[in-house]
Amino acid sequence: MRLARxxxxxxxxxxxxxxxxxxxxxxxxxxxxxGYNVGSEAVIRADLGGATGPGQYEVFADVRYAGAxxxxxxxxxxxxxxxxxxGAMQIPTDAVTGLYAVExxxxxxxxxxxxxxxxxxxxxxxxxxxxxTQVSLDKTFYAPGERIQCEIGIENLTDHDLKGLRVxxxxxxxxxxxxxxxxxNAAGRMAVNPALGLVV
Length: 200
Prior knowledge:
With 200 residues, the chain is mostly beta strands. The protein is 0% helix and 42% strand. The strands form three sheets. Strands 1-3-6-5-4-7-8-2 form an eight-stranded mixed beta sheet, with no helix packed on it. A two-stranded antiparallel sheet has the order 9-10. The chain starts with 25 loop residues before the first strand and ends in an 8-residue tail after the last strand. The relative contact order is 0.16. The model is unreliable at 3-21 (pLDDT under 50).
């Protein structure tokens, strides 16, 4: 019995699951404000593009004084399901003033591998002893030569009494008060009368 020479073709069907590669995560973030007073909270926000759920990733902010090596790590919590995360760091009252650097990190919640990172804009820490809370005038309109009576409210931002404070006013000619008077000349201009400026 002879078998004719032929080409035998075998087709194998492989059944399995092919996992699609997830889309890359985009990361944007920054402090909410450019500067914070000592004793206040520095708030940092991050926006994750491509995140599918709030529990899929962990977001951290590493904060350090510019030039230093010691860092303070802040855990950013999800704000809803839109990929927005936010966290805050309490600035000590004796913190060093100056520029603080911020680095954001995104970790996979399961494997804890870093999937995205960025150097975010930094913020400044300053030390302000008091804050002006209100300014009120005794009248709305003043005639030339009248004195302005002004009441100022201030708030002590420190943990101790402030002494020797003095409130000063600059003697300025405010732009909404005209010092022009008289008739226009041939060129269409009026003479300036400095006596019409407000006395402060």
